[in-house]
Known about the structure:
Layout: E1 12-18, E2 22-25, E3 28-31, H1 35-47, E4 52-57, E5 60-65, H2 68-71, E6 74-76, E7 83-85, H3 99-103, H4 107-110, H5 117-127, E8 131-133
Parallel strand pairs: 1-4
Antiparallel strand pairs: 1-2, 2-3, 4-5, 5-8, 6-7
Amino acid sequence: MSSTRSDPPAQFIRATLSGSTRCQAAGIIVRSSTPILSWCRRWVEAFDGDGRLECYRDGVLTVIVRSIREAANLEINAHGTGFIAFRGRRAASPGRKSDAARSQLPPSTRSRNFRGTDRGKAAAMAGDGLINSVR
């Protein structure tokens, strides 16, 4: 027997942003350092739905998310300059490893230039207008 999920109430959703950490829409309230992306993940968990999200701050349209489902699979990169594929919760970084310790790690973890297809796809989606800041 499969679990049943409610259908999302609409294909277009209006969200309200408060401060830099709160996003509220359709009865879901999220507090996070990335509130819009976290809200999208909660929406997909609750409804397994997709649609467009328009985010307003003080009544002004500030961000448009073309696809809630696609945005749920993104997170901000370490430099805060773009998006990468969402990797889930991680423990805090233990600190920078010495060169000797880094040389003993497998090459995939030594490199700072990850070229995986998921992250490349995530960056392409972000650059393709998935999430747009309104000016």
